Amino acid sequence: MLLYRSAVWFAKGLREYTKSGYESASKDFIPDDLEVQVPGRAFMVTGGNSGIGKATAFEIAKRGGTVHLVCRDQNRAEGARGEIIRESGNQNIFLHIVDLSDPKTIWKFVENFKQEHTLNVLINNAGCMVNKRELTEDGLEKNFATNTLGVYVLTTALIPVLEKEHDPRVVTVSSGGMLVQKLSTDDLQSERTAFDGTMVYAQNKSLAQRWIQRRF
Questions:
Q1: Closest CA to 68 of 30, 36, 112, 17
Q2: What's the whole-model pTM score?
Q3: C-alpha dihedral sign at 90, 66, 60, 202
Q4: What CA–CA distance (Å, rounded) separates 117 from 139?
Q5: pLDDT, one tens digit for every residue, the chain (216 residues)
Q6: Which residues participate in catalysis according to the annotation?
Q7: DSSP class per residue in 148-210
């Protein structure tokens, strides 16, 4: 079954997840949809200091939105924030240092956040792939704590904040890699089988996506 899933993922990936896949899909994009302006709306982007998260934060900033970067590494995050401000000309870029593998830290962050800010859109982008099994201070496997539980806790905590605003949204970034794994909830902590960081990551993404779909 794993071999079959891997073959399907490889074929689908070549067609849809590469540059040529993007270029093919972009033919159906509606230009006006891409030029939307978002002044007056606030967006939270986790993992916004690099990759997809940073690109997303920049595009939102360029279109006038308020951006809240939620990151773990302060030095990298400050560098990203400065770059986004310089290139977009938007000063409304806020930085929050949060370890998304720690539920208590997430709850505390949200309690402080809702006292000072509003939020229209949450973009769950942050993720990690730890290839050796590690446990957090709470005894949680690090990948699961960040990629699945962290998404659940942050989203759940922010729902009351989002619901106060018009047209709130939650966007959770997944991964094509989740297609190589059949969803299993029997071993969330990856204790029963040989640890494979890539497969654990795929399970995490699959589980987080399934929860979001059922919740919303």
A1: 112
A2: 0.85
A3: positive
A4: 32
A5: 456 656 665 666 667 767 787 888 888 999 888 889 999 999 999 999 999 999 999 999 999 999 999 999 999 999 999 999 999 999 999 999 999 999 999 999 999 999 999 999 999 999 877 788 888 898 888 888 888 899 999 999 999 999 999 999 999 987 666 566 666 677 677 777 787 767 776 777 666 665 555 555
A6: 201
A7: IIHHHHHHHHHHHHHTTSSS-EEEE---GGGGGS----S-TT--SS---HHHHHHHHHHHHHH
